[in-house]
Amino acid sequence: MPPVFDLSGKVALVTGATRGIGKSIAEELARAGAKVGICSRKAEACAQTEAELAGHGFEVLARPCNVARKDELQAFVDAARAKWGAIDVVVANAATNPYYGPITGVSDEAFDKIFSNNLKSVLWLAAMTLPEMKAGGSFILVGSIGGIIANTVIGAYGMSKAAGHHLVRNLAAEWGPKGIRVNAIAPGLIKTEFARALWEDEKRAAERIAITPLRRLGEPRDIGGIAVFLASPAAAFITGQCIVADGGVTIV
């Protein structure tokens, strides 16, 4: 039998993969042997990340894509299929949060944007990839502990992630009989550009570190390996789960 974390010959797609958590996931999947398709909204960032990964000897395809635009998302999936054939692993990582503040103050426009990017696009991606995925395939959502515990400044974002976690459970129930696994990763506060408004606030960051059993904030590399685990045979009997990676915040 091959090593349980070996992804050699597998084709993986990662959305929002040119920085932060998404980039770490793409790098680790490639390091485990997968051919990796990546996308993000900016063409320049896609080209730069593609060059970086290719420079390490990884097989990669990059395409600009706004996941909230269904035609662009379909074009990304189609490009990967045209290049490599069947898709084995999908990581829905791209997300947005244009609003910080009390949830009753969120505008209709911001609310709709959050749910379109963070939830509807995940359902689209599942519909585009799961029907043709073979037994042993893995669909992974990057969720958030914001979808598990309350937060006074990113409430709408947390609601979208809570819905995403339940979407994972439903998809797992539907596709499990075909041998396809669907899981989520719920990171805590990770030092990414996306979460800069939270961790750059020294007072808020210090408070978070003080209540975190591991006494630090997360780094993108803390999430990449979890995605490899969920994508690999090592997680062959795990589906419908949300793996929390938060340094222990949600246990205290």
User: How are helices and strands ordered from N to C?
Assistant: EHEHEHEHEHEHHHE
Q: Could you say which structural class the secondary elements and strand pairing correspond to?
A: alpha/beta
Beta-strand proportion: 5-15%
Query: Whole-Å distance between the termini?
Result: 40 Å
Number of strands: 7
The chain-level mean pLDDT equals: 96
Strand order of the largest sheet: 3-2-1-4-5-6-7
Account of the 3D structure:
Helix 3 runs parallel beside helix 4. Helix 1 links the parallel strand 1 (11-15) and strand 2. It contains 8 helices and 7 strands. The protein has a single domain, classed as Rossmann fold (3-Layer(aba) Sandwich), CATH 3.40.50.720. Strands 3-2-1-4-5-6-7 form a 7-stranded parallel β-sheet, sandwiched between helices. By secondary structure, it is an alpha/beta fold. The model has no long low-confidence stretch (mean pLDDT 96).
How do the strands and helices of this protein lay out in sequence?
Blueprint: E1 11-15, H1 20-31, E2 35-40, H2 43-55, E3 60-64, H3 70-84, E4 89-92, H4 108-129, E5 138-142, H5 155-175, E6 181-187, H6 196-199, H7 202-211, H8 221-231, E7 242-245
Attribute tags:
single chain, alpha/beta
What's a concise summary of this model?
With 252 residues, the protein is an alpha/beta fold. It has helices at residues 20-31, 43-55, 70-84, 108-129, 155-175, 196-199, 202-211, 221-231, and strands spanning 11-15, 35-40, 60-64, 89-92, 138-142, 181-187, 242-245.
